[in-house]
Structures are given as C-alpha cells and as structure tokens.
Amino acid sequence: MPATSIRSLVDSDAADIDIVGRPEMPLQWKIDAVRRRVTVTLRGEVSAREPFEYLDAIQQARAMPFAKIFDVTGLIGVFTDDLVRALGGMVARHSALAAPPGPLAIVASDPALRAQAELYARTATADRPVRIFNDAADAERWLDERERVNR
Fold first, then answer.
1. Number of neighbouring beta carbons within 10 Å of residue 112
2. How distant, in Å, are the alpha carbons of 21, 54, 90 from that of 5?
3. CATH number at residue 99
4. How many domains does the structure of the chain reveal?
C-alpha cells in the first residue's frame, strides 16, 4: 500500500481500520488499530530495503506506540549486523523524538536469527520491553498479558 494511502487511512475517522503493508513482499505487516498491535511476518529472502520501508510505514501510520510481534521464523538468511544496528538506531532516534515504541515480541527460533534479534534489542535502546521467543503463541500470550496489566 503506498504511503499516501496509509496517511489517508490514518487521518480518517475510522479508528478500527486494519492497514496491511505490501502483501506481495516477503516482509509483511498488519496494523490492527483496535488491538493497537502490529504483526510483522518475514518469509523467504527479505531485501535490506524492506525493513526500512516497514519502519517508515509504521511511523506514517502513527503505530510506533502499538505493541508489535515480529516473526522471523520464515526468513531465509540473515541481515548484516550493520543493517540490524541501523534499524535499531532508527527506532532509538524516533523514540527520542516521539512517543516510545510499544512492547516488542520477536519470534526467532534459529540460533543465527536469535543472535540478530538480541543485537537489535541491544541497539534499539528505546524505553520499552523486548522479549525474544521461540514460538509465536508464546509471544502473543506475553503481549496479551502486558496489555491486561497496562489497562
């Protein structure tokens, strides 16, 4: 979905609109405005450009404060450490200028992807809880519990 479409949806009065990002790409996301949750799934080979496009779309949609589940279990390959640090730095800079991002549950069962998730968690030094899980259901339960506690 082009950024202009995201902006027009967010600026509308419909608070319960789901915004789905670029379903033809290996990095896919869905913004659930009602649950205030972003679900991100990586499948196959993801280009270095796609995570930055995702972050840009989430910022435009004003969804950075939402809880996020980031499932990389279907990712083929790994990102470079420099790319992971750049993504983390981008989130840290944004959170210093705006509302802190919501809690983040990363699903990464592969040891190499788990190591990158840990690097990202150390680099994206935003004031938010981050946990890494082997299983998406555990990650969802953790976010649900955080939501119940913070009501």
1. 11
2. 10, 14, 23
3. 3.30.750.24
4. 1
As given in the structure block, the two tokens for residue 85 are 């640090």
For the entire predicted model, the pTM comes to 0.80
Please report which helix (H) or strand (E) contains residue 137, including its range. helix 136-149
CA atoms within 13 Å, Cβ hemisphere of 141? 6
Which structural domain range is residue 82 located in? 3-149
Please state, as a whole number, how many other Cβ atoms lie within 10 Å of the Cβ of residue 6: 21
Taking the C-alpha atoms of residue 25 and residue 37, their distance in angstroms, rounded to an integer, is 20
DSSP state of 67: E
- Each residue's pLDDT tens digit, 78-132: 888 888 888 888 887 777 777 778 899 999 999 999 999 998 888 887 778 899 9
17 exposed, middle or buried (CB, 10 Å; 0-12, 13-18, 19+)? middle
